[in-house]
Amino acid sequence: MYKLSVIIPFKDGKAYISRFLEGVSSQSLDKENYELIFVSNNTTDSSLEEIRTYCKKIKNAYVYVFNEKKGSYAARNYGIIKAKNEILVFIDIDCKMTSEFLVKLYDLFNNKNINAVAGKITLEINDISNEWEIYDFYANLNNERMLQKNRVATANFSIRKDIVNVIGMFSEFISSGDSEFGERLASNNIKIVYEPNIEVLHPTRKNYESIKNKLTRIAYGEGQRANKEEKLRYKYIIIYFLKAINIVNLIRLWKKMKKHIKFHCFLIFAFRFTGIRMKQIVSFQRGYLDTDSAKYNL
Q1: According to the 3-state scheme, what is the secondary structure of 170-234?
Q2: Is 204 within 8 Å of 100 (Cβ atoms)?
Q3: How far apart are CA 44 and CA 162, in angstroms?
Q4: pLDDT of 293 higher than 80
Q5: Which of 71, 108, 135, 249 would suit a FRET pair with 243, their CA atoms being 20 to 30 Å apart?
Q6: Do 154 and 92 contact (CB within 8 A), yes or no?
Q7: How far apart are CA 230 and CA 242, in angstroms?
Q8: Measured distance CA(190)–CA(196) in Å, rounded
Q9: 98-155 tens-digit pLDDT
């Protein structure tokens, strides 16, 4: 019978460890049927030691240190190399598995026609009056919507290891390696099944700084990818500029936010958000030239 290898890359994950492990402890699947593979990537806080302590107490739980190359996709690839089992399960340290997460995956992969699965990522809003949380809730980590463009988020993604052995591992960009991987699967006629009952919980980003870090990191990774694929740099710069001045998108955001925040707060948000979009242009160019990668490994 096949088993699962759960791969969790992390960097400075102290704020999330207890919540993540709470989700692990709630799993109904027998521990003999899965292994946990934690991969530290340039961790500077105490999270590495905390996870090491945990892994010493739990059967089939391992922690590795991979600092040779910065980035979560490089860490995931290292986890793939270390994985012993047939099904690779990717999840992030800031997620929490629901109690039936692993057993439902286990049952689903009994179907030999299933090769890859994208599960539901439920974003949790703590403060409904926080415009940054509302934006993150509506804009990010929607696997169902991403799959319409053959993209996937590795916060909740599983695949047969045999498939990875054939098409290759993640491209080790600073960001967007999962999107490229999803598109590569589609180009090889490998279908990703969306399964909303396989669910993880993910906190929303709560302020300007965290949203800025995410979006500039994405732009940097897309720049790296555009360079690798020899795509025209200025085409993407124009696309980012058009995103920055997209009034229609801001109107849509206001319709989602107006029940919860005041109009003057939204105007401040819109001004700062437009500034982030402009910063993405700079980040994309740096990624295309592959400079300052350490800055975007956030």
Answers
A1: CCCCCCCHHHHHHHHHHHCCCCEEEEEEEEEEEECCCCHHHHHHHHHHHHHHHHHHHHHCCCCHH
A2: no
A3: 34
A4: no
A5: 71
A6: yes
A7: 22
A8: 19
A9: 999 999 999 999 999 999 999 999 999 888 889 999 999 988 888 888 888 888 889 9
pLDDT attached to residue 271: 93
pLDDT greater at residue 174 or residue 25: 25
pLDDT for residue 297: 52
Strands ordered across the beta sheet of 156-160: 61-65, 34-40, 4-10, 87-91, 156-160, 116-124, 192-203, 96-97
How far apart CA 7 and CA 64 sit, in angstroms, is 11
- When the pLDDT of each residue in the chain is averaged and rounded to a whole number, the result is 90
- 230 φ/ψ angles, rounded to the nearest 5 degrees: 55, 45
B/e letters for 87-104, b = 16+ CB within 10 Å, e = fewer, are: bbbbbbbbbbbbebbbbb
For helices 263-289 and 208-228, give the axis angle rounded to 10 degrees.
30
Tell me the C-alpha distance between 221 and 176, whole Å. 6
Count Cα atoms within 13 angstroms, Cβ side, for 107. Answer: 10
- How many CA atoms within 13 Å lie on the side-chain side of 220? 24
Average pLDDT over residues 45-54: 91
Say which DSSP state 140 is in.
S
Please say if the pLDDT value at position 298 is more than 50. no
Burial class from Cβ neighbours inside 10 Å (0-12, 13-18, 19+) for residue 44 reads exposed
Tell me the whole-structure pTM to 2 decimals.
0.89
> Residue 70 burial by CB count (10 A; 0-12/13-18/19+): exposed, middle or buried?
middle
Distance CA 89, CA 15 (A): 22
